[in-house]
Q: What sequence folds into this?
């Protein structure tokens, strides 16, 4: 009798803030894999609104009711993190054709660094195609309503952070 290997996928990002689009992708990935690890990146060239710890806590609040989703903060090279998690796949979201070229290059580089890895591209549901963390931050900073783009917990955290 052979035992089946657990199918583990890593969904990396800065998640600053985590949006309903991110949640949509994780929800769908959770049906495809035994475990989905939401990997919140700490070391980033981006200037973030929330600290790594805050972003991890927000993601945990969003995904707390998912049995097969875990949230982990990480620093360093994604492929080292993926190997440490014994994952076979990385999930990447594609909102528009403009995302594809960068993501395609990234997938190729990641495969060179870790040949056993497969990258799976998922597109968000139609209502989230245009939602990005940077747009949510911009709308919030300018006093706009972001409730239709983020969970209630995240919306409260954004308002608190910007007040």
A:
């Amino acid at each position: 009798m052979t035992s089946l290997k657990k199918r583990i996928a890593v969904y990396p990002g800065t998640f600053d803030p985590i949006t309903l689009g991110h949640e949509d992708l994780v929800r769908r990935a959770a049906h495809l894999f035994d475990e989905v690890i939401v990997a919140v990146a700490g070391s980033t060239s981006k200037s973030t609104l929330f600290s790594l710890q805050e972003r991890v806590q927000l993601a945990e609040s969003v995904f707390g009711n998912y049995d097969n989703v875990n949230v982990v903060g990480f620093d360093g090279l994604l492929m080292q993190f993926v190997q440490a998690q014994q994952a076979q796949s990385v999930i990447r979201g594609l909102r528009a054709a403009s995302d594809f070229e960068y993501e395609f290059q990234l997938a190729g580089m990641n495969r060179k660094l870790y040949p056993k890895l497969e990258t799976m591209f998922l597109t968000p549901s139609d209502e989230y195609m245009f939602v990005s963390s940077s747009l949510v931050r911009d709308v919030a900073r300018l006093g706009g309503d972001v409730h239709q783009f983020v969970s209630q917990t995240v919306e409260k955290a954004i308002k608190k952070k910007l007040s």
In short: The chain has a mean pLDDT of 93. The chain is about 40% helix and 20% strand. The longest helix spans residues 97-113. The beta strands are 8-13, 35-41, 69-74, 89-93, 118-122.
